[in-house]
Specification:
Cytidine Deaminase, domain 2, 465 residues, disordered C terminus, alpha/beta, 2 domains, Rossmann fold, 13 helices
Length: 465
Amino acid sequence: MNSVRSLTLTVGQHNNAKRHLFPGDGLEAAVVLVCRRVGMESERLIVRKVIAVPYEDCSVRTEDRLTWPGSAIEDAMDIAEDHGDCVILLHSHPGGFFGFSEIDDLSDNTTMPCLYSAIPGPSAIHGSAIMTPNGAVLARVYPGVGQECVFLRTMVVGHDIKHYGRDIPSRILHGTEGMRDLFGYLTVCVVGASGTGSIIIEQLARNGIGHIILIDFDKAEWKNLNRILNCKVRHVETDAYKTELLAESISEYAPSIRITCINRSIFDPAAIEAASSADTVFSCVDRQLGRSVCERISTAFIAPLVDLGVTIPTRTLPDGTVVVSDMCGRIDFVRPDGPNLSDRGVITPKGLYDEHIFLNAPDEAIEQVRNGYISGVAEEAPSVINVNMVAAARAYTEWTIRQLGGNLDPNESVATIRFSLCARDEDHVAEADYDHQTLLELGQGFASPLLGFPALVSRKIGEAA
């Protein structure tokens, strides 16, 4: 239960903390982070609330020393103990020292036993962190009272994805060993292991992602042979799960990569629990319901979401001949606290309703189509390998550049990418062009009902309450 490896917060939370920690007077300041544990092994800490410690309440504030009022920590503990959450005490180092001083160590020796006394329990783990003027965060937790600290990697999710830690260089070049070292610490979940999904998975594995979680309930079929990478005749003949045939292939060229196969629908609580371990989620599904779950996972578990899809529209000529009119793709980069797929019109109430009817009441669906209430829902998005390749490569590259840098235009100006292969064109939609309505409480984790769906009850709610 004490295998925490990372601390994740949104850029909004990070900016709020930074503004308070560096007010411009060159003196130390403090905030308290109330965090929740998520992941299959409760290995991630995600920030739920940032509580500023008032400057005037600190009895000592100098450029290298800070004395906190006990009341500020008690207020955070009151919030945390209601749900068994964790507390991280974060203060600034105005001089830029990216490490913990002897004074910091002595402070932890005093405060950590108090935190564990106030918020005990199997999920409780508390720690401290520092921030330097450039926004870099170094965090550590103590698995228990009197135990040695464990240093965490910190990820800040915004238009960029920033990584901080003791051994992470400030600049990492694309395609280098430095990139592979960074990616080797990441966990990435891919929902949907078919056309675009298998290509995303291949790119992740070839570039050394440390842990890849594959979620798909389908087995290999004959129709998959022309579009799922590494799918072979023997996989179809043996009814192999798509996730497992891809895991088998990865093991042959990258045996050190950890692969977790979840042969269930993303609407299954076990699949959602697995996805909560991810630092990033790729949505490669065909249906709006699957995308709806993924956008909620992004918000509830503070993980960036990359959603992609392709389509090949057709038109009918005057003589009745059906021809392909275009080959199109879409990639959306979704921040946990930014405009989601519903805000962007990728998911619509009508689309969800139509899918529900087709999946659960096929006779009624036929009748509604006959009466003109439903214009039709594709049971499977049309795709061919070349369009899938373009979409998957563009999505993976966008995700990589947002971590390592290199985009010539500001990332906030490119929330949605749409391309037309026939028109040889790519269009961008800025995040500011979308209105945003909150679906869930940010960082709510395994709160029940799970992801706000009344039909789902979290298997981990006992740890979160």
